Amino acid sequence: MCTVCGCGGHSVEDQFKAHLEKTGQAMAAPTAPLAVLAQAPASVAAHSKPHDHGTIDAQGAECTHDFHLGRGPAGTEVPGMTQARLVEIETDILSKNNNYAARNRENLAQKSVFATNLVSSPGSGKTTLLVKTIEMLGAAPLAVIEGDQQTTNDADRIRATGAPAIQVNTGKGCHLDGAMIEQALARMPLPDGALLFIENVGNLVCPAAFDLGEDAKVAILSVTEGEDKPLKYPDMFAAAGLALINKVDLAPHCDVDLDLYESNIRRVNPAIEVLRVSARTGEGMQAWLDWLRAGLARKAS
Q1: Largest CA distance in the chain
Q2: Strand partners, 169
Q3: Which residues contact 169 (CB under 8 A, 6 or more apart)?
């Protein structure tokens, strides 16, 4: 969550320090295990990291000292901060973002624009899928907002198809937010009844929490990522309305179980729609286009 990584503007530690300065308090030292690890020899620190149950350490002993930092109300932990303070900061950040998202949603609704927020890990094939989608849609009115930390590579690939695209570089930021999309929309005149594709920064964590004003989040999962990916990153798949299992043409070469991929997605979100697609071969692409057109028709009505 971005209240920890700080990509929303300032890190939690920075915000907490500012809060303490205002109240005249001193910041607490890190918890003992983290403080010890920071000064420990590399061999000790390596052994002190969480291990999977059943792994064997250098001395041949089974390591079963895993721990979970996301069981509190905030879903995470930060040294020197209470769960209540973490929740307060997160609520403040998301509340401000939601104001921008609400404006975006209203503006898009007035023009009957159907907006999708494409989210995934890096390398899932989002841009390739998007290029193929644009080619198959033909003359349909559409536009693309591309999010990456650096470069205009993906926007250049989209513009090569003839579609309008704006690149949003986030610097150290690991997701797009509502304010960024508002700025992009101000620079991109959209015709009524258009499709808007927002390709988010490759990240399965922070984008799950940030509403951009979209009609639906579309989670894209490559068959090369492992069938347990939805279970490792449940927030994203819980937030998505559609999951695309991409690169299914590679499934025979990767020894993967597509039914297990789909089963794990539905374990996280029983209501989610799931499509199996391949941008390279075109498999499943028509069903994806039908889903987009159905969403656009609902928006127009």
Answers
A1: 67
A2: 148
A3: 148, 149, 150, 151, 152
Task: Give residue-wise pLDDT tens across range 135-157.
Answer: 999 999 999 999 999 999 999 99
Residue 170: its H or E element? none
Q: By the 8 A CB rule, do 257 and 227 touch?
A: yes
What lies within 8 Å, CB to CB, of 182 at 6+ separation is 100, 103, 104
- Average pLDDT of 43-63? 47
Average pLDDT value for residue range 198-223 = 96
User: By C-alpha distance, which of 267, 256, 272 is closest to 223?
Assistant: 256
* CA 281 to chain CA centroid, nearest Å: 26
Task: Quote the tokens at residue 142.
Answer: 């559409």
Structural domains in the chain plus CATH codes:
1-87 (no CATH), 95-300 (3.40.50.300)
In this prediction, residue 213 carries a pLDDT of 97
Q: Which residue has the tokens 């303070």?
A: 85
259, two tokens: 């039914």
